[in-house]
Design a protein that fits this description.
Layout: E1 13-14, E2 18-21, E3 34-43, E4 52-66, E5 72-80, E6 83-87, E7 93-95, E8 99-103, E9 109-113, E10 117-125, E11 138-141, E12 149-150, E13 153-160, E14 170-177, E15 193-199, E16 201-206, E17 209-214, E18 218-221, E19 227-232, E20 237-244
Length: 251
Amino acid sequence: MRSPHQLVHSRARVRPRYALFPLEGYPTSRIPAWRGAEIRVLASPAIGAGFAQYLIDLAPGGGTTHRPDGRVETFLYLMDGQATLHLAGGKPTVLGPGGFALVPPAVGFDLSSTSATKLLALRKAYEPADGVPAFEPVVGHAADVPAPAWMGIEQARLQTLVPDELPFDLAMNVFAFDPGFGLPYVETHVMEHGALILQGKGVYYLDGDWMEVEAGDFIWMGPFCPQSFYATGPVPAKYIYYKNVNREIEL
């Protein structure tokens, strides 16, 4: 942050098919459902996203009690701290850094932090499909999820946190690249993304522009936005990203 008398500048970019937001300059919000929380709204329908994504800082004892509405699913990923997650009808689970959960629209839950905690949350209207059963809750830890080489590239590793199965209409993946490696092509596809850089830095290609990114940056990529990534040093770059999957295109 610069002194008040200095000129300011920002790496933030908002374009029709993408947005890049460094954490600097992000004001915090309060949402009634969350107690003891400072919330940064990273993406929402207001920018063109088909989902809402939040970065939430919880004070000890902060959290939420979620009453299901039968429509919206919730994904949670702990970045720091510790919290207890209690799904309705189940036993409490203690989540630490890397802990995650995907909760179906029909399931309530309570989340309570036991220390200062930072987490990523995503809400999306679930899209049912004929003949496909609703999914069951998924609770896990990133350390327990395999990180195989992506496309045979040992320096690029992809973790699939949510099973790649038809009941799930979203994917949450963690992608890691060693310095000097990246995607070997420019992707263009119908899925949209919400991506948070967890570690390291690199350059991201978005709709014709190369931009520097680093840990803490958030990127929204709309449908058919050309995109690619290349990691720069000194440590591996890692980001977690959402995409909508496994459903017919609505006409």
